[in-house]
Amino acid sequence: MATETHGAESASGMPQLDPSTYSNQIFWLVLALVAIYLLLSRVALPRIGAVLAERQGAITNDIAAAEELKLKAAEAEKAYDKALADARAEAAEITAETKASMQAELDAALAKADAEIAEQQKESAARIGEIRDSATANVEAVAKDTAEALVAHLGGQADSGQIAGVVSSKMGGR
Predict the structure, then answer these.
(1) Residue 155's pLDDT is what?
(2) How far apart are alpha carbons 164 and 160 in whole angstroms?
């Protein structure tokens, strides 16, 4: 009994294992594979390919943009270095001009001061000469008066002309 039940089950069992249905199974397998192939080749793979191409294009564009930005950065750095060098040169030039201007002003002020000092020296020398001449004249007059007073005090009569000549000769000898 158990065998009969088992034999009936195997005849009505799994249809995939029944060799009489192999041709139908192969037909539907081929039809399913063709449908999957057509679905993949016409719909899914083009979309995937488009996404991959878009991604590759974005990567290529990003790399190109990065290279362009790198070149611009290098150019900007060169421009910055040039501007910095120009600014330093201009600062050095301004410093040199300012230094030269200040030196010229200082030289002019020193020359003016030297001229004023020389003028004052001339004036001082002239005043000293006048004072010396005046003092000499005063000393000579005082010497004459003193000599006349001494001669008169000693009891003599002195000749003013003779005393003036002696005092002048003594004063002129100095």
Answers:
(1) 77
(2) 6
